[in-house]
């Protein structure tokens, strides 16, 4: 955690989140890259607001993270969320970009990596996202491994996601997490979910049917001095899950197009997300919204156990 002095210098915590911190109420951090770069307007705005509402309805306080005019923000107002959803000059901000964006008074959307980092600066223990970044397909050649995995490994936080998209190499992503000691818990499943679909074919070691088991695992990890994160794979609700063949075809095509166009680095994930969305006539966007909202609900429930 940052010292009080450094929090004052660099961070603005919203009154609602500050009040929750003072009273030790459950807090759920939410990322902002999904708002600025992961979904089109107006669904990005609607989803960001509905996730905040769902977190509140489930007894926790939402803390959307971002960098606005160089200030690290924990908890945004509705107007600020709208700004993140509509402004064109928002940098997708990973750890590498973070000090530059802050030092130069710029606007940054926090990825899972920098949302974890931001949450940890102020001591928040849980983050909700849609899908995490991971080891990209072909990473053996490109070295493209999302910073999300390292931040997850290095910070004491529970991250709730709907698994990883098969734009990534899910098997290698799980291997990487194992190397860095991150438990991956399947909520009601014994497989790593694949974001748009409930199954990926990759088995998880731990299936948990109750949120208190998840909170207990995280607490035990930290009490034992085993610092670092815990990843929860929460499958998309059955009724919203996509047809596996259709989504896989869209992903394969998007990967070929990215290769042909020479898309690299931080552009890769937003490029693939956009192509998949277009190839599925917007159906993938509907699925995406349902799964994020579902994560917000489960995340708030886990947070309540964590803080109890
Ligand atoms: N996966 C999604 N939607 C997203 C992202 C990932 O299904 O919006 C975003 C998240 O913010 C994640 C980031 O942290 O992309 C990963 O980017 P990269 O692969 O460049 O590390
Ligand atoms: Mn990358």
UniProtKB/TrEMBL annotation:
Native species: Anaerosphaera multitolerans
GO CC term, one of those recorded: cytoplasm
Name of the molecule in the record: Pseudouridine-5'-phosphate glycosidase
Subunit structure: Homotrimer.
Residues annotated as the enzyme's active site: 31, 165
GO biological process: nucleobase catabolic process
Broad class of enzyme this protein falls into: lyase
GO MF annotations in UniProt: hydrolase activity, acting on glycosyl bonds; metal ion binding; pseudouridylate synthase activity
């Amino acid at each position: 955690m940052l010292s009080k002095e450094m929090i004052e210098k660099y961070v603005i915590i919203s009154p609602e989140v500050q009040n929750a911190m003072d009273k030790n109420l459950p807090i759920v951090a939410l990322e902002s890259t999904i708002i600025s770069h992961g979904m089109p307007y107006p669904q990005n705005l609607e989803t960001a607001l509905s996730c905040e509402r769902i977190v509140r309805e489930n007894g926790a306080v939402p803390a959307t993270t971002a960098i606005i005019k160089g200030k690290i923000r924990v908890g945004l107002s509705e107007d600020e969320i709208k700004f993140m959803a509509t402004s064109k000059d928002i940098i997708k901000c990973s750890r590498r970009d973070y000090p530059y964006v802050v030092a130069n008074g710029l606007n940054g959307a926090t990825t899972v990596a920098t949302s974890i980092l931001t949450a940890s600066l102020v001591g928040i223990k849980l983050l909700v996202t849609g899908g995490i970044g991971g080891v990209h397909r072909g990473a053996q050649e490109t070295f493209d491994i999302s910073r999300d995995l390292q931040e997850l490994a290095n910070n004491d936080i529970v991250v709730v996601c709907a698994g990883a998209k098969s734009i990534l190499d899910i098997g290698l992503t799980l291997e990487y997490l194992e190397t860095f000691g991150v438990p991956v818990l399947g909520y009601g499943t014994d497989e790593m979910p694949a974001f748009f679909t409930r199954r990926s074919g990759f088995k998880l070691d731990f299936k948990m049917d109750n949120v208190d088991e998840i909170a207990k695992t995280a607490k035990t990890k930290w009490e034992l001095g085993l610092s670092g994160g815990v990843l929860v794979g929460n499958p998309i609700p059955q009724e919203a899950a996509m047809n596996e063949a259709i989504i896989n075809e869209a992903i394969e095509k998007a990967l070929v197009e990215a290769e042909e166009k020479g898309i690299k680095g931080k552009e890769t994930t937003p490029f693939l997300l956009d192509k998949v969305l277009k190839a599925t006539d917007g159906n993938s966007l509907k699925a995406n919204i349902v799964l994020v909202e579902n994560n917000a609900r489960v995340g708030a429930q886990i947070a309540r156990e964590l803080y109890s």
